[in-house]
Design goal:
This protein has eleven helices and 17 strands. It is α+β, with helices and mostly antiparallel strands. A five-stranded mixed β-sheet has the order 15-14-13-16-17, covered by helices on one side. It has a four-stranded mixed β-sheet with strand order 4-1-7-8. The longest helix has 27 residues.
């Protein structure tokens, strides 16, 4: 009887182990050229990035990570330094990844998961789009307006392709969810706060996830985003209307006006600076590189203000008190956009990342943006 009980216990233990293994997924493979580098396996959660596991790679770059599977699709990433490979898991699957470091973000293959293969396609498309946008911004032969128009046309075409082939095709899939949150720089390509068509894309995926994964936190989050986008659309349209400039005024001024309160409570219009050379600067004082950049701007201001240079600096900081402390001793015009990263002014000026700046001549005409300027001081001297 004891032997039978022992045998039964062994069988039950084996079944238990097998059951545990069946509830896990595995991401494994090789990252060549990365000997002694640390490869991190991270969960891309709604609350942020969490490191789940890591390994120091050997000569072959072999790795294998296993985690408990979830009941709904979840997102993870492989990372070495700032190089990232995104993966999604929706079952107890095994995903095979083979990459080459450096450059593994675009130089890798993936198998074992249709969602992961589609995410790879989307990632490569986004990398290509961002490279083309940067090239246009850096093209000194293009004017700002023409470069911005070209970039916006590319983004619009990209969105239509992604909606057709990835979002609306199978909105219940993990790759459709992933597509909604792609970005150029720090800004979402699909923005449900500012675009009715983008709200529809979010709503389509939200509806599918509500159906297929009714208790999933991600699905509920999508659902809330879609509903909030619909509620806020009238507010967004009102904000857009407030910021829009009449065509005659744009032609007269040559620049889209910005009217914001400065750090002393006075309303300051960008267009009121006609007759001066203006450095229009978009800045975040909370960034770690801010102090060094402010020193550089102060040197320029001190050197050329008497000759007609003015700085109109737009802060995107969320903390008003912090911003006022940081700008109290600055001699130039310091204003703050309380909408921060969600400001429509960033859209109007096609700001993809902060800091960014523009040079405006004495006639209130936008001359160049940061990406088109090799040497800022030389550009300012030319206009003074």
């Amino acid at each position: 009887m004891k032997h039978i009980c022992k045998a039964a216990a062994v069988v039950l233990a084996a079944l238990s182990i097998a059951s545990c293994n069946n509830n896990k997924f595995t991401v494994e493979g090789q990252i060549a050229g990365a000997k002694d580098s640390v490869l991190y396996f991270e969960n891309v959660g709604l609350e942020g990035i969490n490191v789940l596991d890591s390994v120091k790679l050997n000569d072959n770059g072999d790795f294998s990570f296993s985690q408990d599977a979830t009941t709904a699709p979840e997102f993870y990433r492989l990372r070495i330094a700032d190089q990232i490979i995104n993966v999604s898991i929706d079952s107890t699957e095994t995903v095979q990844v083979k990459g080459q470091y450096p450059g593994m973000a675009s130089n890798y293959t993936i198998s074992g998961s249709e969602n992961c293969e589609k995410i790879r396609e989307l990632a490569l498309k986004q990398i290509d789009l961002q490279a083309k946008a940067i090239a246009l911004q850096s093209n000194t032969e293009l004017g700002i307006a023409k470069a911005n128009d070209s970039i916006q046309s590319m983004i619009n075409a990209y969105k239509e392709e992604v909606k057709r082939n990835y979002i609306y095709k199978e909105p219940y899939k993990a790759y459709a969810y992933f597509a909604l949150f792609q970005a150029i720089g720090n800004y979402l390509i699909f923005n449900p706060r500012a675009n009715k068509e983008d709200i529809k894309a979010f709503a389509a995926v939200a509806t599918s996830w509500d159906t297929y994964y009714p208790h999933a936190e991600r699905g509920q989050n999508l659902h809330n985003i879609a509903i909030e986008g619909m509620k806020n659309q009238r507010i967004v349209e009102a904000q857009n209307a407030d910021i829009q400039i009449e065509a005659s005024k744009v032609q007269e001024a040559g620049v889209l006006d910005i009217a914001l309160l400065d750090n002393k409570g006075n309303m300051r219009h960008l267009t009121d600076l006609k007759g001066q050379v203006v450095l229009l600067d978009f800045h975040v004082f909370a960034l770690k590189d801010s102090p060094a950049r402010i020193i550089q701007l102060r040197e320029l201001y001190n050197k050329y203000h008497a000759q007609g240079l003015e700085i109109y600096q737009v802060s995107l900081d969320s903390d008003e008190h912090f911003w006022k402390q940081q700008t109290a001793a600055l001699p130039w015009i310091s204003v703050r956009d309380e909408d921060g990263a969600g400001s429509q002014r960033l859209t109007l000026y096609n700001i993809q990342a902060v800091p960014d700046f523009f040079v405006i001549d004495r006639g209130n005409n936008l001359v160049k943006r940061a990406a088109q300027i090799a040497e800022l001081e030389a550009e300012i001297k030319k206009l003074l």
